[in-house]
Amino acid sequence: MKKSRLSSYFKVPRLSYRVWRVWRRDQDVFMKTYKVNFIPPLVEPIFYLLGLGFGLGALVRLPGGTTYTVFIAPALISVSMMYSSFFECTYASFVRMYYQKTFDAIIATPVSLEEVIAGELLWGATKSFINSTIVLAVTLLFGLIVITPPLFLFILPLSFLVGLLFSAIAMCFTAIVPNIDSFNYPAFLFITPMFILSGTFFPITEPAVQTFANLFFPLTHTVTLTRALTTFTPSATLLLNLTWLLVTTPFFFVLSINLMKKRLIK
Amino acid sequence: MKSELVIEAEGLSKKFGDIVAVNNINFHVDKGECFGFLGPNGAGKTTTMKMVNCVLPLTAGKLTVAGMDVTGQAREIKKMIGVAPQEDNLDPDFTVFHNLMVYARYFDIPKEEARKRADELLRFVQLEEKSKVLIDQLSAGMKRRLILARALINEPQILILDEPTTGLDPQARHLIWDKIRSLQKQGVTIVLTTHYMEEAAQLCDRTVIMDNGKIIEEGKPSELIKKHVGEEVLEVAYDEEVLKFLQNAFPDARLDVVGDRIQVFTNQPRGVFAQILSKFDFKAAMIRDANLEDVFLKLTGRRLRE
After folding, report:
1. Which ipTM score applies to this complex?
2. A100 and B103 in contact by Cβ < 8 A?
3. What is the pTM of this model?
4. Please, are residues B118 and B101 in contact by the beta-carbon 8 Å criterion?
């Protein structure tokens, strides 16, 4: 069993419509407490905008004369995609897998483990969509987004893609951590640096950091794309950002499902 | 009556790394019977159940359920079996009723039909008043009953019960037993694991006794008792003199000293102990029926497991 060949980590899962049964389960739970669930994405951006945007922003001068609130609005949207999906598929999935034994209960039915994990990933992507849409609405109300032409609408599908990527990365960690406390490693060594160093709250100008962030931080590409959509500044290089996301997402999607199979099916 | 095989295992083995959990076992379960796996903790009962249930891949051997191979046709098999696992894996995020509804969805049962079945099943396990209650407000016995109801939501032909009454009080246990019996009457094939000998004796048509991953004995509970420990057991308080006397009186019997008591097992017919007792007055003497627990302890020893 030790001899697991590399290809076994990238076996394409066989999925059916049953993936949505798992998705529906998570959605049912979400809807039971939806009022509480809407608080974070609604309240957080308001305080970020007030504190960072208007408070700190008063002291900041950006090249090109961009207002600081306009600069960070797409960052707040992007960060909400990352946080909501990453934490859904780390802590929340781990609780369902390890403490509640929900996965065990589901795989005793015609739903397979691959479908359970895929359903969790799609739900993580959905959380990204829901939360970032609310943040987007808040920034729209603050008047921080170019609405004609309404390029910002592309943020909606983007949020699903980005959410799927972060969910899949998260699920890889969920598949390998020995216990729930171990999520501190990815949360503070991966997510927190990414939160700060992805061109979110200040432009990255140092080339070395720029290269590093472009290679390893999905949030960098997310913020670049979102910012182009909120400020209506399309450019050809955005295709590179999108390609990066489109390539890494299926990679981690497949990897995370195989890692989970290795963890749960001995 | 010709019996139909529902589950058949040949040379079934399961290894976890270097640990052999199930070691080359053969068994078969007939349609409509209640089949029991007995054994101490760690004997391999649950592992075997999980292979039947298509959630654990086999290491070696062949296992078919309703004529289908567990490795290739897991989905088809899982559609027709109901599983009540040992551990509580009810969904704590939902109410009692919603647990059944969500579970029904995994089986593609339409909503209206699911609602009907959920109502019926809650009545069947006497939980209809708890319908709107969250899982963590249920007692252990109620949870077991709900797990049983959940296992029945797809109207299974085979029901797998992994230690269905562990940790329950006598009332709850008897209720579960009643339900199992009535399901068997309806034609459901039942496979259960237990380490309560009384449970197996009460419910099972046939049992196998497992120890260390192997099946060490197989048969009807009553036959196993007769074969291994006879009909009656004499228990008396331990005394050197008494022990000697009994050894002389029953030269073919097996005498076990357990704690401060002597247990005498003999193959002789019922009544032989009563004769002895009427002539001599032993301290704290007791004649009782031999039971499956005696068989179990004889075959698997008294050493503690795990």
Report:
1. 0.91
2. no
3. 0.92
4. yes
